[in-house]
Amino acid sequence: MSGQPALTGRSSALPRSLGVQNQVLFVLVIVAGAAVACSGFVGDAPNRLISGRPIPLWFAVDLRMTASIAVLGAALSVACLVPQSRPLHWAVAALAGALLMLVLAAAGQAASFLTQSGRPGSRISLGPTFWVLTAGASLALSDAMQRVGAGIVAQILAVTGIAASVALLAVGGAFDALSLAREFEIRRQVFADAVMRHMALVGASVGIAAAIGFPLGVATARRPGLQNPVFAVLNILQTIPSIALFGLLILPLSGLVTAMPRLAQYGIGGIGVTPAIIALVLYALLPVVRNTSVGLTGADSAVIEAGRGMGMSPGRIFREIELPLALPVLLAGLRIVVVQAIGLAVVAALIGAGGLGTFVFEGLGQYAVDLVLLGALPAIFLALAADFILQTLTAMLRVRSA
Amino acid sequence: MIEIAEVTKYYGDRRVVDHLSLTVPDGDFCVLLGSSGCGKSTTLKMINRLIAADVGTIRIAGEDIATVPAEALRRRIGYAIQSIGLFPHWTVEDNIATVPRLLKWPRERRRDRVAELLKLFRLEPAIYRAKYPHELSGGEQQRVGVARALAADPELLLMDEPFGAVDPITRDDLQAELAHIHRETKKTIVFVTHDIEEALRLATQIAVMQDGRIAQLGTPLDILEHPASDFVADFVGRQGIGLKLLSVRRVADRMRPGETGDGEPISADTSLRDALSAMTTRRTDRLSVRDSTGRTIGAIALADLVR
User: Fold this and answer.
1) Do B71 and A400 touch (CB under 8 A)?
2) Potential cystine with A137: which of A100, A243, A303, B246 (Cβ 3.0-4.6 Å)?
3) Predicted confidence band at A400 (pLDDT cuts at 50, 70, 90)?
């Protein structure tokens, strides 16, 4: 990025010179081009247990679709070679967004096209080319948005626009023929329950972690002597591998329930939701406590002295000065914790906590990639959505109190 | 009136303030002058109980401050510091209205007071009241800081090197504004600085401090003409003493009433040093003098400066 202005400067002096003006876009275009040329856009398998035969893009979709994708790809390759400017970045953002939509539509078209023409019962799964193109288009879009210096509003519009278009395509049945959609179709009700359970796990653990971590963070900010012992313990917790922690909790909790059988009535047990939430809370504590502590100690001491000198009470200084000033850092901590918990909760399915991880482990057991994706994709989507919402909130706060 | 009687403060075994007694009459501008570590800031902060005195009593208007709740006491005393400490997430208006809000003034009264203070510091209320501190220059921030200290019309104003961090030209403006405000409002001000020029310019009374004690207490002229010890003489500076003397005397002291001089008249409040400067730049040895209403009331000649 730092080399960009110099390159632009040179190119304005020599407008004819053809060089790579946007390295990020250049790499993305090369990788995407290679993926289209060398790997399958979708896989065609006679049943879910056999891995599919790769089918390249141009055999999977009709000529119009292939041509449209090729034209967009060509336009993007030109865009990384000509002198860069703000309008060009906007154009790249629009092209990348269009490419993303087109690739998604192409996947749906390929599936319905191949299932109609192929053997009955054959399964069309998404291939490497699809993933590389989707990832490439998304990266190009976000890179272009960053280069324009798009504000919060533009970013919200872009993200909601894309999400709405994908939802519209899905509701319209564009993806129905894909094997992923078929796995979903069979498990429609189970899927909805799993998503709700996943969000409940995350919500409960983040809520409890905040309730414990926030006062602990305030305490460490007030008494620097507490910082070493508290952070030592939390750091050690953070280093325990998640699967190990889930496993380690089974024994003491089962022992507890054996000793006090009444606890079982409340759903507490060695496996299931209880150890999952405990483990998620333990992992969430470090970011919550650390960010609370850093946020509160970050306030300028002169500001606090001025508040005291004018006769503000300690409680008022905390509520009206320290807390609002620490809020962006607190929200950043919350963001880390939510995203981390959404990912870790997938693993919690291993000890019977339910959630999206159920599909992942079921799919791993059956060697059914589509089932793994049915668990993994919504988890990724949830994490991205939570990250985006909290990041936007933080940015809005920073703008107000810069 | 502030009466500080036999006050001592220990930091560990070190006596940072040592049996210090000082009386500041109402309407006085008292400057605590000294090098860093002499106990001047500690003394100031004991007056609003940001630091508790270990021994001795401090009375404000006859009332022992130890008997008043600290927060109630501080709301009666304006406080401005070098690092200003404006609340970065509040507008200029909210910052200035901090103490009035603590005192539960009605909204209308707070608004009017903020506008009045912004005008006093030559900041247009329509432009400045909704700005955030990071949108202001250093000088504007310090003006808002002092306006905030004055907001609830306190009986007493404590200032801890308030102009230490601004550039010399802005500092000059701010000093002139503060001197003007002191003359207008007759507030009692206790002001901490290590800058002898600033002290001479602003003070009606200077307390030169050394090792937690007052080495000399007197008017600026006293301190310059009759330093009580070698320490004081060294501190106020033996070099350029003549110019410093000129800077503490006013044109009004040496003026020839009824006579007239050349060119644009200068104010009777001007220091003799500034008068000398004006004569030098205008290449004249005689200037007209006006009063605060702009009426010409006399003249001053070069010879009058050295009389």
Assistant:
1) no
2) A100
3) low
